[in-house]
Amino acid sequence: MKYNIEPTQQERVMREDDFLVSKTDLKGRITYGNRIFIEFSGFGEHELLGAQHNIVRHPDMPRGVFKFLWDTIAAKQECFAYVKNMSKDGAYYWVFANVTPSLNAQGQIEGYFSVRRKPRAEAIAVVAPLYEKMLEVERKAGPKDACDASIALLTSVLAEKGVSYETFILSI
Description:
Layout: E1 19-24, E2 30-33, H1 35-41, H2 45-48, H3 63-74, E3 79-86, E4 92-103, E5 109-117, H4 121-141, H5 146-161, H6 165-171
Antiparallel strand pairs: 1-2, 1-5, 3-4, 4-5
């Protein structure tokens, strides 16, 4: 089911001890969501299960961030990221996400597991302007080249700082 949700300026702030947990299959369809994930998403469990995880994607998030994330976890590596999500009512909430591939006994990916916690305000102050620049580059590049353009921008920012993506994300 597709929802036409209009973003609002209403922010939901995670509590210090909150952990949003979800699992997806190989296609990114939600197979599990804990009580806190359901609460923050604003969707009922029946609406989330089987839905694409991007059901909570906020339009302020650059496509390049998700391309990077999917490429990383497809390579059987964990990925950390700051993500702005959107609730069913249009409110937004920031998370610090750790996404890992779930491997079967043969070492093949059978799905993905994500745990999100409250991000530090100082980190959001760093990534929000970067994401705005990435979105601007994506709009200028057009849909076909958007991801490559924003990943190129991210790569150049990391090169300027002389750090890897993981070092950057974990240091802010």
